[in-house]
Amino acid sequence: MHTPVTIIGAGLGGLTLARVLHLHGIPVAVYEAESSPSARTQGGMLDIHDYNGQFALKAAGLMDEFHAIVIEGRQTLRLVEQDGTVLYEMAEDGTGGRPEVQRGELRRILLDSLPADTVRWGHQVTDTRALGEGRHEVTFADGGTVVASLLVGADGAWSRIRPLLSDATPAYAGTSFVETYLYDADTRHTRTAKVVGGGSVIAPSPGKEIFAHRESGDTLHAYVALSRPQDWFAAIDFTDASTAATRIAQEFDGWAPELTALITHADITPVLRPHFALPTEHRWDRGPGVTLLGDAAHLAAPNGEGANLAMLDGAELGEALAANPDDIEAALTEYDQALFARSAEAVTFDGTEVHGIDSENNTAQAMLKMITEQR
């Protein structure tokens, strides 16, 4: 295939697509709003599943590089009560089904696998328009433009490419995270480090939850989940670390101090992460020369599949284009149909949709059900 592919967004999905296209000798350019690979931190740990994320990495020819960044022992999962009592602990099973890596390291190996000029940094999209015959013009904040013969929106929740295909916009999902970090936890926050253990801990409760995992070394990364309207969070001054931490901690009054310390003793100002989602059945009529992947296509509240699905999207789109070099529209139609089916599969537990912190949360739900039935 000689038609160049223009990708908007250098996240995990867009970079996976670029890598697969590169392996097949298909010309590709990635335009990214961030000014450089180090412009911001890339988030915490990801468990990469053997049925989607690892499949994508195999298609990208990066399994050796992936295994080199896996952090051993991080799959341990502990379910605790509000007083810190351990209800159940699941040890790492050793199967390699969902090894944990740092998101930034995963992005790095994808970037390193591409020619240096593949990603064009500092290109924030401000406008797009169809030119006909499958061609699209993309305008950037600096006034520059590019005309794409084949355009892929891999630009996340608030995609600038999505309006070319769909009128759908993300809606608040009813829950938010408050994100915190504790550094040097084994020496400075010993009780909290002990309850988290070597992997992850989840303390669930109706409408709220504390989740934390151990990153590299003795850094603890916490997500405090609350089911509250956006107005409730808007009333909290998140620029004032003490005020924000105190207000969020009030929602966990009476909980064990080693758990609430993840809020009150945080080494950063708590960061609000509201959850938005596209309709579960989000789809579009085939538009010539353009498609979407990852959160631009199927944004959902956190369920452990987002990064994995974005990479799988990228790999499958790349493979479809390589397999249909003389019929791009056939490749895009094949890809879209598989994407729609995958996007509609809500993560469920016992018939109820689960919007947990990540896939460990789904496992925790199963643990909790088992424990309840045994009582």
TrEMBL record:
Positions bound to FAD: 47, 103, 295
Full protein name: Flavin-dependent monooxygenase
Keywords: Cytoplasm, FAD, Flavoprotein, Monooxygenase, NADP, Nucleotide-binding, Oxidoreductase
Cofactor: FAD
PANTHER family linked to this entry: FAD DEPENDENT OXIDOREDUCTASE DOMAIN-CONTAINING PROTEIN, MONOOXYGENASE ASQM-RELATED
Sequence positions that bind NADPH: 40
Compartment annotation: Cytoplasm
Domain notes: Consists of an N-terminal FAD-binding domain with a Rossman fold and a C-terminal substrate-binding domain.
